[in-house]
Amino acid sequence: MSVSTTVLDVPSGAPARVPTPAATDPRLDRLALNQKTTDGWGLEDLVAGCVDAGIPAVGLWREPVQAYGVERAAALVRDAGLRVSSLCRGGFLTATDPAAAATALADNRRAIDEAATLGAPCLVMVVGGLPEGSRDLPGARRQVEEALAALAPYAAERGVQLALEPLHPLFCADRAVLSTLGQALDLAERFAPETVGVVVDAYHVWWDPELEAQVARAAGRIASYQVCDFVLPLADDPLLSRGMMGDGYVDFTALTRAVAAAGYDGDIEVEIFDRALWAADPRDVVDTVKRRYVELVVDPV
Amino acid sequence: MSVSTTVLDVPSGAPARVPTPAATDPRLDRLALNQKTTDGWGLEDLVAGCVDAGIPAVGLWREPVQAYGVERAAALVRDAGLRVSSLCRGGFLTATDPAAAATALADNRRAIDEAATLGAPCLVMVVGGLPEGSRDLPGARRQVEEALAALAPYAAERGVQLALEPLHPLFCADRAVLSTLGQALDLAERFAPETVGVVVDAYHVWWDPELEAQVARAAGRIASYQVCDFVLPLADDPLLSRGMMGDGYVDFTALTRAVAAAGYDGDIEVEIFDRALWAADPRDVVDTVKRRYVELVVDPV
Lengths: 301, 301
What we know:
Two copies of one chain form a homodimer. The first copy, chain A, has 301 residues and is of the alpha/beta class.
């Protein structure tokens, strides 16, 4: 597949770069670039690239932040005048072995600390799939609930919102037994909204017949709104099947309006995992992200 | 991948075949073999194979039945003393072009006639994905509802139940905008239960956090209970990712009990699409189907 012709609006290495919106373009006020979208960039490149492109916020991942140093990363982002929109990710709470479960809780507490240090408003939680060898889905779901109850006070003390991310049911077995927004809200509503919220990730929820009703129900609990498109055919690794907005089946206009109607006015984070994008020049990826975001995602009303 | 060691309990071509339950084994009373599971068999082989194996019912597909002749197929199955558990499949009702929509309705009426001729209690409906170029999922869902209203009287007159099959959300874009059992029931409940029912297909619904509640709600509307396992990794063609019961993540004991508690006592149809199985000797596939069905699927209580 040719990246330059099928995915990006701006052919990589084209001699004349298409003009981008000015750094102060108010249409970009809520745009956040998740760092996985431009995976080829290190943290410093990412920050410089966002400043350069007039993108005011970044979604960060724990591993590269830890490698750079959490305090140092916080200062880098802050000094550049950027916001952190979210930290990915905590979770993986379904281990049944007591030692493994304790290790997972300890790791999540570290993740909460990191989010607090970075000034991230929320820690995205991918709750984990079925334990090895288990087919007890209700049991795994109960375990997530218990682990969340154990973590919530720690998060509340540090002012970090745990953001439960329902994943597409495709990932129920191996990544997240949390499969719908309704299920995430059933769980979140046991806690204060500022402590446990939900992620509305277009890729994971676009198919849900209850989507509009559940987004409305999520009013006051939407911690993060993430966008990327559901594209077919699936990539050989389904995790890397998240496409550029406009290349797939998601009606972003409808979803953005539903999220806005639920009162969410926070950052809108573009999080795309796609090998073709990763092979492209990150600056070209950013140009396409901005253009598609303005055309398709941000509320045109 | 070696078929014989990873999928089948009985290595293909093994000199001594493991003894199979007797043809009158009462544990097999409700077992139906969907003909796609042993795709290498023509209709006559399928019928002979089921008689040979003590399997009392077959799930048929329209294309091979049409090729053989519908009346002739009906006689073949009947004369062998077998039941038809279901006919696959009607549906694909989401075309927006009026001519294409009319063609789809006409084809579904033919499918209803074929089901009646075969004595199939139900016609499985895979409703269709998003129309070409459309992102209007609510619109496609409304269209299914309208087409179903147009078809229901025709089905009722012929005593064929339309069996709405929610497909795994993985297939929402390209195969079925009907994604959950709850959504299928919302639609089915507008019609008499004997005219519009639902399919509980383990592969498609196992992940659903509302599964138990929705199966209970489906009491009196379960037209078909289909089994196969959700396995990972996905096949390169996700349609062919349905695995042998026991090879994946589905808790069949829990699902069979829920379906029984909802009053369903009809056939339990094993429908597996898997290239490795198709490459194997169908008699070995049938042996494994029977063994796994008895061990894992049929209610042990």
